[in-house]
Design a protein that fits this description.
This protein is α+β, with helices and mostly antiparallel strands. The protein contains 16 helices and 40 strands.
Amino acid sequence: MTRSDPTPLDTTLVDPAPFDTVLVANRGEIAVRVIRSARAHGYRTVAVYSDADADAPHVALADDAVRLGPAAAAQSYLDIDAVIDAARTSGAGAIHPGYGFLAENARFARAVAEAGLVFIGPTPEAIDLMGDKAAAKRRMADAGVPLLPGYQGTDQSDETLLAEADRIGLPLMVKAAAGGGGKGMRLVTDAADLPNALAAARREATSAFGDDTLILERALLHPRHVEIQVLADTHGNVVALGERDCSVQRRHQKVVEEAPSPAIDDVTRSAMQQAAVTAAADIGYVGAGTVEFLLDVERRDGDHQAFAFLEMNTRLQVEHPVTELVTGIDLVEWQLRVARGEALAFGQDDIVLDGHAIEVRLYAEDPANGYLPQTGTIEAWQPPTGVGIRVDAGIAAGQQVTAHYDPMLAKVIAHGRDRDEARRRLADALDRLVCLGTTTNRTFLARVLRHPVFADGGATTSFLTDHDVTTVALDPRDVAAVAGWRQLTATADAERHSPGLAGWTNATWLVDARPLRVGGDHVAVSLQATDAGLSVSVEGEPFLVTGTPEALRVDGRPVHLSAHRLGEGRLLVHLSEADLVVSDPTELPPGADDAAGAGILTAPMHGAVTAVEATVGQDVTAGSQLVVMEAMKMEHVIRADVAGTLVEVVEVGDQVGVGAVVARIEPTDTGG
């Protein structure tokens, strides 16, 4: 599947652009990933950083590092002139953009070339074309790549859009032509909702991309999201490296990715790969890229399953490791080699898929609270290891997770002989992964992997809508384990100080009753030492805790627990099923355990105040919108929890930390 399909492949150089130093214009796990691969192949590496990332792992890993500017991305990682200057001052001959930030910015690619540097990626023209969803779909239609029924025209009047929507039919997807990441996107299932959907999508598109152009396409309500990895050189060779299934998503953002897809057959795979190669060849693509498709699992198109072009990502994808694990091809290495003018050393027939790989994205977010992004200090970080396990991470213990950047912390990937082995390995790896100090989606990811629908390979893009895996009730056995661990640890400490006297009494076994605060819940716990072990009661339910802090058992069941002590009597606790923040209110200093509620509204995350909907002295009703905050590309609305008079509120532009009071309401006196 090549444009020229030379036999044998041409391995001469075309306009070689030699360089020995690579600047990585990114941060976090992808910067670490690119730096490691570049160094493994003999390149000197340069990191760039903002003030918030001065001590980040990617900075320490590189041979050299250059400060770009303040924490705000617009003043650092998105500052094209600063990145070019950093390359010049550090002696870099090439720039790798990673993904996100400037990776798909054609103006940046042009600026790199104009500065006499090598952009490790496609041409600016290819980035421009595929970055415009409307133009991309028109080009793909001309190339014969399958499309969903839709409208990508230049006439953007409401009259035309409403008429085209009627032609296409429902359900309908309204999309920003310059969009991405789910922004400027609305699903319409009722024609009466279309005018409002068009207006809302336009507003969001203008705010996010500065372009309110919309496209329309027939919506598939339960499709699979399947994409093809392509690799192309400057000699006209294009190969497809198999597919990835990215169907498990929340808010159009991928959560789980795997290769190969469990949903397609060999005929469909071949047809989809041919379509992807056609798409890349038609625009003269160079480097690593991904052609994304929607797969209609309920319909066939001739001899293969029906699929339609969605978009092309003109960069390395977050999920590229699963392709690397099943093909054995280092995509970053080949990005570097193609950028030097080398021809691909393999053809389509050389690509063989070995086993199965699955990747999950570890985010600093709270799935049980609308996937709100979280901030904090990484107090403990222990990535899992073992056969078939790979972790791409850009964090370390002691590092601050701020509201300035995307909340993804790491990627955990497992490879196995087959899908079920990869799935089991990955779930087990997540059980063992320790990331304490900020709320993450670790246990949520493990529940997704163990859900029977996912295990059977049946998850579509509606999986997280159809199945609730975000909330899990607090297991009293976990509370018993924590309480027992605290008591056994305290007893062991006392024994070291007073051998033979720890816990001594001339009375009967004493009962120690106390409240524990586990997360946001207050739980009544009592402990009593017995000949059999610790009898622990959690809200009246009895458990027997035995063993030592290092080898704990609850009712005979082994519990793998690790804890990190914070100040003020607080513990960060890791259990395979949960990560808990535990404190004893009786040990906290005065005022440390104040709770919000009854008119005291606090920030659920660190971020900026973007809107305030009421003024001091105004009467508000319960549920009314008071404050809008923004962090990590997300907005969150804070509403009044009681009716009353607003007596205090933050101002637009304020930066507030998680837990900070943003408004106070004096409740209405209802009498009594």
